[in-house]
C-alpha cells in the first residue's frame, strides 16, 4: 500500500512539473544586443534568457550581463527546444 501511494505521488509530481512548462507555437524573433565592455579578462558573458509572461502568454527577453564564474565552472547558454506541444525555452545555467 505504501509503495502504491508513493508511486502515485511521484507520478503526480512529474505531471505537475511537466504542466508548468510554457509552450508557444512560434518562437519570438532573435534579439541582437550589444555587449558592454568586459570588466576584466576573467569575466564571461552570460547571454540573456527568455522569460515566460503568463499575463500575455508570450516570452520576453532579459538582458545579458558580465559575470565572474566560480573556479571550475562554465556557463551553458539557454536554448529553444521544439516538441510536439510547441516551443519552449530551456534556461541557461552554470555547471
Automatic annotation (TrEMBL):
Cleavable signal peptide: 1-19
Keywords: Signal
Name of the protein: YXWGXW repeat-containing protein
Organism: Emticicia aquatica
